Automatic annotation (TrEMBL):
Regions crossing the membrane: none
PANTHER family named in the record: GERANYLGERANYL PYROPHOSPHATE SYNTHASE (PTHR12001), SHORT CHAIN ISOPRENYL DIPHOSPHATE SYNTHASE (PTHR12001:SF85)
Family listed: Belongs to the FPP/GGPP synthase family.
Domain of life: Bacteria
Protein name: Polyprenyl synthetase family protein
Cofactor: Mg(2+)
InterPro entries: Isoprenoid_synthase_dom_sf (IPR008949), Polyprenyl_synt (IPR000092), Polyprenyl_synt_CS (IPR033749)
Keywords carried by this UniProt record: Magnesium, Metal-binding, Transferase
Keyword ATP-binding: no
Keyword Transferase carried by entry: yes
Amino acid sequence: MPGPGPTVAEPAGRADGPLTAADATRAVETVLGAVLDARLRRAGDVDAVFARDLAGPVTAFVRRGGKRLRTAFAWCGWRAAGGAGDATALLRTGAALELLQACALIHDDVMDGSPLRRGGPAMHVGLVRMHRTARMTGSPESFATSAAVLAGDLALAWADDLLTEAALGSPHGPRLYREWQAMRSEMVAGQYRDIHAQATGASGVDDALTIATLKSALYTVERPLALGASLAAADEWTVASLRSAGRCAGLAFQLRDDLLGAFGDPELTGKPTGDDLRSRKLTYLLAVALRLADAAGDEEAAAVLAPGAATRSDDTVERMRRALERTGARALVESKIEDLAAAGLRHFARTGASPAVREEFASLVERASGVVPGRGKEST
C-alpha cells in the first residue's frame, strides 16, 4: 500500500463551536492543494512529459473548483454520528471524494462529447487543442479521447491512494474502505446503465430512476454521508437513517441537474444546456414526459421526445423543451424534487443529530436541490 501522503495540519474549529461544514470544505481545499502539489512533483519524477501533458491538466481541473458537496455531506455524516476532535481522516476522505469526482466528470464528458465543464473546456477539448498546438501527427480527437481516459484514470488512482491513506490512519479504516469500494462499483454500474439505455432506446421511468440512483444519488450524497459516519463508528440505526436521507437528497440533486440540463443558464451552470436533449439521454424528466404524452394522446410531444438518433438541430431541442413544459413533466419533476428534499430532512432528523448539524444538512440539501424544504423551489 502507498506510504503516508503530505502532512496536513488539522484545521482549528471555530472559537464558538466545533468544525462546521464550511470549515471542513475550506480545510479540504488546503488538503487538496497539498496533495496535488505532491502528486505533481512525483509525476515529474516519473516523466517530465507525463507531468506536463497529463498530471498538470488533471491538477488544474481539480483546482478549478466545483461545489464540493460530497465533502460537506461527508462532514454531515461524521457529525451526525457524533464525530468530533481530530478531523484528519475526514478531510483526507473529502479530498479523495473530490478526486473521484474529477475522474467521473472527465470520463463522463468524453462519453457524452460535452465541450464545457466548470466554466472551461472539458479535459478532452483541452487535449485536442494541445495536440494541435504541438503539431502532433494523427487525429487530434483520437489522441484527446485516449489521453482524457488516462487523465480520468490518474485522478481515480490519486483518489484511491488518498482514501487508503485515510483508512490506514483511522481505527475505523475497514468500514471506511468498504463504503468506498461499494461506491466505486455503483458509479461504474450507473455509467454503464446510462450508455446502455441510450444504445437500447430505453425510455421507462424505472430505468431512469435506476440510472439516477446509481450514477448520482448514491455517490453524491448517500455514500459520502456513510463514509463520514463510518469514521465516527456510527451505529446501524444512524447509518440506516443517513442512507435514507442521502438517497432522497441525492435523487433531488440529480433531478435538479436534469432540469438544469434542459432549461439552465450555461453562465450559471458552467456547462452547456440542452446536451442531454440533443443526445436524447434517458433522464427522469424525459421518461416522465414520454409517459405523460402517451397518457394524454399528445402525439407531437411523444414523437419529438421519443428515443432515437442524436440531433444537432436547435429547433428540435426547443421543440423538446416546449414538450417538456406542455406535458406537465417539468412541473411534476419540480414537485418530486420538493418531496424528496423534505423526505431527506425527515430521515436525517432520525439520526438525533444536533439542531446545528440538521440546519447545515438542510442548507446543503437546498444547494443541491434548488429548493428550500417546506417553501418550494428557489430557482431553476
